[in-house]
Amino acid sequence: AAVVRFNFESWEGVAVSNGILPRMGDLDAYHMSAGSFDEAVRQIISVGGKLPNLTPGDNIFWSVNDNFCVPDSVYDPAINPDGKQKLAKLVQMCQALRDACAAYCIPLTSGKDSMKNDFKADGVKISVPPTVLYSMTAKVEDVRQVVTSDFKQADDVIYLLGETYDELGGSEFYQLYNELGANVPKVDFAKAKELYTLVGEANDQGLIQSSHDLSDGGLAVALAECTFGRDNLGASIELGCGLPGELTSTALLFSESHSRFVVSVAPEDVVAFESILDGRSTRLGTVTADGRLRVRHGSGELLNVATPALRAAWTNGPVNQTIGLESASALHQ
Description:
Elements: E1 2-5, E2 13-19, H1 29-46, E3 62-69, H2 83-104, E4 108-114, E5 118-121, E6 124-127, E7 131-140, E8 157-161, H3 172-176, H4 189-204, E9 210-213, H5 218-226, E10 234-238, H6 249-254, E11 261-265, H7 270-276, E12 281-288, E13 292-297, E14 300-306, H8 307-315, H9 318-323
Parallel strand pairs: 3-4, 10-13
Antiparallel strand pairs: 1-2, 2-7, 3-7, 5-6, 8-11, 8-12, 9-11, 10-12, 13-14
């Protein structure tokens, strides 16, 4: 999430986030919509936001706007024979929106809908997958207390918050192989709200040094991005104890299960932190000062890469290459 200070007369500000998962729309419209909503919520939680209405009169204000982008759902036996199915998916998306707003007590204040997203040429029609973008805002009482995503210092302890499942359907990993998959990530609203409340309690005590929500690319990408803030910081990660033993290394690294964070905690705060997040946190490893991201699983080393190389690859993705944001030579520097 982005955080903006209102003015120079106070330290109040606003956190702004977005959630969108178009790849998952072809798998399950309900879970795509629920997951997009949760993505926007957890981005704000990650920077230090707290859910509203946990106590009466808590003076915590949130708002969400929707932007539906769906194909024509008006049934016609000749030109739109699957219109009823498309309409059913739209209904599922709206049901998920209702469930998410009610679960997190976040009001839906506005929206914009685009309902005829089909491309037609030479007798062929291509329809967009059912998609919705959720744009969310939340008041921040003191922008000086915001938690950023970058690791802060060597020897801090790294944790994974939340649960990982075999949920690679619609993932960035599968997209690399032109596959869609089947196991779409699903939001457990009750468990997510419980975790977000605990994260707020930890932030109240100043126990979290850095926090990054997990989304596109799963744990592997989040860990890499956490190393981008400060020179020469890396991480040593072990995917063994505390994570589901039945999951493959691929699932552990690239599953896009919702409602998860990577956080770092100073060694002197570990006991206090674990007393709050007991049962919802898994210790992964430590921040290192060698500028490398190392990941092990059992007896095997899965990853050992210099963080500048990770940053260059991340910055120099296909989109940035297309628009010329950074030269491809950066990958080889």
